[in-house]
Amino acid sequence: MPHFVYMLRCAGNRIYTGYATDVQARFEKHLSGKGANFTRAFPPEKILKFFEVETKSEALRLEALIKSRTKEEKEMLIGIKEGELPCFIPKAKTQKKSA
């Protein structure tokens, strides 16, 4: 069974990211108002991008990584070539300086 992470353009030029095994069926669920709270508040307009991975675990991890990115970074992900996965560089950890 395929596992997908998808990105939707929603009202107000917002981007929603989610997980599904059938992107089109999930999109239709969002359109009907039976999707996530976010897509009820900001109705989806179109599917922007989806990434296919092998396992649900990989999909959920990728979904969390995308959700943690800025809007500008998410917009850049939309331009990734079909069939390619985003290559994330771990965020630098900030260390507290001792006084």
Can you summarize this structure?
By secondary structure, the chain is α+β, with helices and mostly antiparallel strands. The protein has helices at 23-31, 37-41, 56-67, 71-77; strands spanning 3-10, 14-20, 44-53.
Question: How are the SSEs ordered, and which strands pair?
Answer:
Layout: E1 3-10, E2 14-20, H1 23-31, H2 37-41, E3 44-53, H3 56-67, H4 71-77
Antiparallel strand pairs: 1-2, 1-3
Q: What is the number of independent domains?
A: 1
Estimate the global geometry from the Cα principal axes: globular
CATH fold topology: GIY-YIG endonuclease
| Count of individual helical segments | 4
What does the radius of gyration come to? 15 Å
Structural summary, described in words:
The protein has 99 residues and is of the alpha+beta class. It has a single domain, classed as GIY-YIG endonuclease, CATH 3.40.1440. The chain is built from 4 helices and 3 strands. It has a 3-stranded antiparallel sheet with strand order 2-1-3, sandwiched between helices. It is globular, with a radius of gyration of 15 Å. The termini are far apart. The model is unreliable at 89-99 (pLDDT under 50).
Key phrases:
99 residues; alpha+beta; GIY-YIG endonuclease; three-stranded antiparallel β-sheet; 4 helices; 3 strands; 25% strand; globular; disordered C terminus
